[in-house]
Design brief:
The protein is mainly β. The chain has 3 helices and 42 strands.
């Protein structure tokens, strides 16, 4: 990013955040949020839900100074979300149940699949102004269609007119600056409005790596007729200057290159402008509550990067991509109470996506010094020796029904059925220069198939503050293959991924509701999972099996002091897959081997002390166990512990906080590049932030 652009972004942040920010409310003694909606679309008591679902409140995110997905999920059992990866430093690659894939989960923002019919749009995902996060493990509920297997993360903002009026501004290491402000208006009982703005300019240990972004969210709601009309407008601008992955040589990372070597061209960037609008209407009818939501999103992206060739001669392949993505979403459903013991949700939805991309590749376009002493030339100056195009249309439609039946105060039964109709059409071409050889192909695929789920829970004892609930659930799901918009020619449409999941768990509360816990065992069988090949393209991997145990504990020792703990044991293995052996060049089976970057042990421990005045403390530690960097399990790396901490002082409505992420400054490999031929991205280095804040109400 040029110096003038960086100064302009910082000036906008300072002007937009002219007051300081924070909050005055202490943590509640209540251990968990009692009502959730991700699994049902209608409010459901968490203790009656036959599945493991974690809730992270917006207030907790502020208490822990968690400003990205990695921080938000750091205490969620069995979850990882290291920042960065091929999508840039503003992105992340989440992991659930031991599967480390950027597209295997569903990201939802206020009921809308964020990223549409393609991949989760983590880059434009923003945590400012959230009321809570809900994290559901396993396949998406039938209301969200053929979209995910191992998890759903839903971000829920405060309803219009209820967003806290507050502001924050922070200054951090490497000249970083960020700020946010939110304001609400509900003077007219029939019209409610909220406005949330945030921005950031962040530097990293790699002096060339940078992030600059700005987000604006307007939420409005008003009474219209016998119902309520809702409108959301979201605008995001993201400018990333990416770092480079570190090559792997044999059983470890390459020692020939410095840890922050950046081989990207001088004009490298991953820029995105996104515009999103959503309109919803809810009203009571004779058939129950009728809720309709329609959304539209459009993004323009520029992606300019370079990757070292695997021989480590210094030769670099570059890509210069221009991409546009448009997606639309429509859901309409009725939720009707059947007597006093059952609720039936019946609806239909349509998820549409259109993506178009032009890629200019310069294979071996330039060479770099492996010590990083010389900045590479800009991609605009290189000879283009390969030109590729891709255009893809996707339609995911379905009709669904889900019955939530509680025959008495102890039993709860939830069953769901969905009929899916999936269609996709893709045009792809590649032209090699200078001989102008052209390859092009048009392919399409359609299918119709059902997905289903059933869950049962039983509550021991009476419905009091202290209870024990035993549950089990079964889910059968499928998902059309991902489209990664990479630089390689990929004309084929891959087979849909399919999964069958079994889950058994225990959840409950104790100590008069001050302690909550949940423990679950799961078994998931995958077929046709999409993974990256050594050429950089994607392929159906064959099969995987994910098994393990996860648990969470949250205890409010006092109204001000809360302790959280989480743990997980994962056994994520290939059940059928062949890879190319680096030494011989032959195909070898890796059936029974542990999935790449899938740790067997994950554990988290957090402490938050948040009185109404005075000193505030928050510490979270995350342990990630040993894992393998390759499919053949020959490159093993040990575990590491990541610690985030903050200390602050609250006086009146103002607060000052000093926050540190990755306190120990460890830099282990955390994410495999899909384009870097066996290269890996490292955990971001330590960053310090000084934050000031003020809260009006």
């Amino acid at each position: 990013m040029g110096q003038s652009t960086g100064l302009l972004v910082k000036a906008k942040i300072v002007i937009g955040v002219c007051y300081l920010a924070l909050y005055t409310q202490p943590l509640l003694a209540q251990a968990v949020d009692p009502v959730v909606i991700t699994a049902t679309r209608v409010p459901e008591p968490l203790d009656r839900l036959p599945a493991m679902l974690s809730v992270v409140s917006g207030r907790e995110l502020i208490d822990r100074n968690a400003d990205d997905m990695a921080g938000a999920l750091s205490l969620v059992a069995g979850a990882e979300a290291p920042s960065g990866g091929d999508k840039g430093p503003s992105s992340a690659v989440p992991s659930f149940w031991g599967l480390h894939e950027f597209d295997a989960f569903l990201l939802v923002v206020d009921g809308v699949p964020w990223g549409g019919a393609f991949n989760p749009a983590i880059t434009t995902f923003n945590l400012t102004g959230l009321e809570r996060l809900e994290v559901l493990k396993g396949s998406a509920p039938v209301m969200y269609g053929a979209t995910s297997f191992v998890g759903v993360v839903q971000a829920l903002h405060y309803p219009a007119g209820l967003t806290p009026t507050e502001a924050l501004i922070s200054y951090g290491t490497y000249g970083s600056l960020r700020g946010s402000a939110s304001v609400s208006s509900a003077d007219n009982a029939s019209v409610r409005q909220s406005l949330i703005v945030s921005g950031e300019s962040r530097g990293y240990a790699d002096s060339r790596e940078q992030t600059a972004n700005a987000h604006l969210l307007y939420r409005g709601a008003m009474d219209v007729g016998v119902g309520q009309l809702r409108f959301d407008a979201n605008v995001a601008h993201v400018h990333d200057v990416p770092t480079s992955p570190v090559p792997r040589i044999g059983a470890g990372l390459a020692s020939l290159t410095p840890i922050d070597l950046n081989v990207n061209p001088a004009d490298s960037r991953i820029d995105e402008d996104q515009y999103h609008f959503a309109l919803g209407y809810t009203q009571a009818t004779a058939l129950g509550q009728w809720d309709t939501l329609v959304s539209f999103s459009h993004s323009n992206l520029t992606d300019i990067r370079g990757f070292l060739e695997p021989e480590l001669t210094g030769a670099v392949d570059t890509q210069n991509q221009q991409r546009s993505i448009t997606d639309g979403y429509l859901d309409t459903h009725f939720a009707d109470a059947i007597g006093e013991r059952a609720t039936l949700v019946v609806g239909a939805d349509l998820l549409y996506g259109h993506g178009a991309q032009t890629t200019l590749n310069s294979n071996g376009g330039y060479s770099v010094s492996l010590d990083g002493s010389v900045v590479p030339p800009p991609a605009s100056s290189l000879f283009v020796n390969e030109r590729g195009t891709i255009e893809d249309w996707r339609w995911f439609a379905g009709a669904y029904s889900q019955l939530d039946w509680k025959p008495d105060d102890h039993w709860a039964v939830m069953t769901g059925l969905r009929v899916n109709s999936v269609s996709e059409r893709k045009n792809a071409s590649v032209q090699s220069l200078p001989d102008l050889a052209l390859e092009a192909q048009r392919v399409s695929k359609s299918l119709v198939r059902p997905t289903e789920t059933v869950g049962v829970s039983y509550r021991l004892g009476a419905a009091t503050h202290d209870e024990v609930v035993i549950y089990a659930d079964y889910r059968n799901a499928f998902k059309p293959s991902a489209l990664d918009f990479g630089p390689d020619y990929t004309p084929d449409l891959l087979s849909p991924e399919t999964a069958t999941t079994y889950e058994f768990g225990v959840k409950g509360t104790a100590a008069q509701g001050r302690m909550s816990y949940q423990v679950a065992a799961f078994w998931l069988d995958f077929t046709n999972l999409v993974v990256a090949t050594t050429s950089g393209s994607l392929a159906n991997a064959g099969g995987e099996t994910l098994r393990g145990f996860e648990g969470e504990l949250r205890f409010a020792l006092t109204s001000d002091l809360v302790v959280q703990a989480s743990g997980a044991f994962h056994n994520a293995r290939f059940s059928q897959y062949e890879v190319t052996d680096d030494a011989t060049g032959n195909l070898v089976s890796v059936a029974g081997k542990q999935l790449t970057l899938a740790p067997r042990v994950l554990a988290g421990l957090g402490l938050m002390y948040a009185p109404s005045q005075g000193i505030h403390l928050a510490v979270s530690a995350r342990y990630v166990g040993r894992r393998y960097l390759d499919e053949q399990n020959e490159a093993e790396v040990g575990g590491y512990t990541n610690i985030d901490a903050s200390v602050g002082y609250l006086f009146g409505r103002s607060k000052v906080t000093l926050n540190a992420t990755n306190l120990s400054n460890q830099r282990p490999p955390v994410t495999l590049s899909e384009f870097g031929s066996g290269s890996l991205y490292l955990l971001a280095g330590r960053q310090l932030w000084l934050t000031c804040g003020y809260r009006w109400r």
